[in-house]
Each structure stands twice: as structure tokens, then as C-alpha cells.
Amino acid sequence: MFSQIYYVIRSRSDGSYLVARTESGSNPSGAGYLLMFREDFEALSYLNKWGADVANRFAVESLPGSQVKNLLKRWGFVGVGVVVDPLEPRIEFLTQERSLE
Q1: Residue 12 near residue 58 (C-beta atoms within 8 A)
Q2: Are 25 and 16 a contacting pair, CB within 8 Å?
Q3: Would you call 47 helix, strand, or coil by DSSP?
Q4: What are 37's strand-pairing partners?
Q5: How many CB atoms lie within 10 A of CB 46?
Q6: Residue 59's beta-bridge partner residues?
Q7: Can you say how many angstroms the Cα of residue 46 is from the centroid of all Cα atoms in its chain?
């Protein structure tokens, strides 16, 4: 995970990241999972499919795998959600403990 480059979607207005929130009771704080994509075009496809009317309010940024751990801590994310298929969407959720091994 550390040697790979991921892509994230970030708000142009306030700099917040696009997150997924699960309905399970394991996340009572309301913190979400940082959505990450393996390719920049997957992030763009996700935006165009699910948020075409607001896509211009977001930007796709690269994120080195070596910075994921610090970003999760700084923003208080529960873990990451790696988007496997942006058009369905299918997401693999990993908690901080599992995602950083």
C-alpha cells in the first residue's frame, strides 16, 4: 500500500475529502472512510456518474500511499474505502488497523 499512488476527491471550497459513512454501529463518532481510487480516471468516472451536477466543485488529487496513515490520523477517518468499481459502485472498506499493515 505504501508504494502505490492513490487518487482522492477533494472539495474545492473547503478542502474536505469525499468520504463514505456506513450505517453500522461500529462507527458511532460519525467519522467516515476516506474514498480512494487506484486511477485518476476512476475518480473522474465516479464524479461524473454520481455527482455530475456538482462535479465542478471537486478536484481529483494524487495521494502517495506513504501519506495515507498520516492523513487518516489528521482528519480522524475510521479507515479507507478503496473503490473497486466506480460505476456500480463497489467499495472495499479497510479500518486503520487493516489498511496500514
Answers
A1: yes
A2: no
A3: helix
A4: 7, 83
A5: 23
A6: 10
A7: 11
Integer Cα distance of 27 and 39 in angstroms: 28
Neighbours of 89 (CB within 10 A): 16
Sign of CA dihedral 70, 76, 81, 86: negative
**Do the Cβ atoms of 58 and 10 come closer than 8 Å?**
yes
Q: Which three cell numbers stand for residue 29?
A: 463518532
Question: What is the value of pTM for the model shown?
Answer: 0.83
Grid coordinates given for 63: 495521494
Query: Maximum CA pair distance of the chain?
Result: 37
Q: Using one digit for the tens of pLDDT, what is the confidence trace for 2-43? A: 679 999 999 999 999 999 987 765 555 567 999 999 999 999
